[in-house]
C-alpha cells in the first residue's frame, strides 16, 4: 500500500548487497546497519528523515517490494525513451540510472 499511496517514495537498490536506495523523488535513503531489508531490490519508504548536513536520508519505516509491484505503483514515473540500435523503446523510471532499468 505504501508504494501506491506514495509512489514518489519508491526506491531501488544502488548495489545488490548495499543499503543505499535512490528514491524516485531524488534523494538517496539508507537503511540502518543490520536491517533485514538490506539488499532488497525495491523498497516503498513510508518514513525517512534527513538531518542537517546529511547527504542521504535515514529510512525509519519501509517495506520491500517485488519489481512488478514497484513498476505498477510507480507507473506515473515511467517514461518511454527511444534508442538506436537496439529495442525501439524501453520504459524507464524518471530520474533513475540506466542500471536501475533492468530487473
Q: Quote the distance from N terminus to C terminus.
A: 21 Å
The dominant shape is globular
Mean pLDDT: 78
Neighbour order of strands in the largest sheet:
1-4-5-3-2
Structural classification: mainly beta
Uncertain stretches: 86-103
> In this structure, how is the largest beta sheet organized?
5 strands, mixed
Radius of gyration, rounded? 14 Å
Number of helices: 2
Beta percentage is 25-35%
Q: Supply the number of structural domains.
A: 1
Q: Which series of helices and strands comes N to C?
A: HEEEEEHEE
Estimate the helix proportion, in percent. Answer: 10-25%
Commentary on this structure:
- This protein has 103 residues and is mostly beta strands.
- The protein has one domain.
- It has two helices and seven strands.
- It has helices at 2-5, 67-73; strands spanning 10-12, 20-22, 28-30, 42-49, 57-65, 78-82, 89-93.
- The strands form two sheets. Strands 1-4-5-3-2 form a five-stranded mixed β-sheet, covered by helices on one side. The chain has a two-stranded antiparallel sheet with strand order 6-7.
- The longest helix has 7 residues, at 67-73.
- The protein is globular, with a radius of gyration of 14 Å.
- The two termini are 21 Å apart.
- Residues 81-103 are annotated as: Disordered.
Topology readout:
Blueprint: H1 2-5, E1 10-12, E2 20-22, E3 28-30, E4 42-49, E5 57-65, H2 67-73, E6 78-82, E7 89-93
Parallel strand pairs: 3-5
Antiparallel strand pairs: 1-4, 2-3, 4-5, 6-7
Biased composition (Polar residues): 89-103
Region (Disordered): 81-103
Descriptive labels:
single chain; 103 residues; mainly beta; five-stranded mixed beta sheet; two-stranded antiparallel ribbon; 2 helices; 7 strands; 11% helix; 35% strand; globular; disordered C terminus
Amino acid at each position: 500500500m505504501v508504494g501506491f499511496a506514495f509512489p514518489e517514495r519508491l526506491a531501488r537498490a544502488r548495489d545488490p548487497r548495499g543499503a543505499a536506495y535512490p528514491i524516485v523523488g531524488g534523494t538517496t535513503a539508507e537503511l540502518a546497519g543490520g536491517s533485514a531489508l538490506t539488499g532488497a531490490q525495491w523498497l516503498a519508504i513510508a518514513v525517512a528523515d534527513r538531518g542537517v548536513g546529511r547527504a542521504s536520508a535515514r529510512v525509519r519505516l519501509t517495506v520491500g517490494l517485488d519489481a512488478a509491484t514497484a513498476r505498477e505503483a510507480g507507473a506515473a514515473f515511467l517514461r518511454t525513451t527511444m534508442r538506436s540500435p537496439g529495442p525501439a523503446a524501453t520504459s524507464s523510471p524518471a530520474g533513475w540510472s540506466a542500471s536501475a532499468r533492468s530487473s
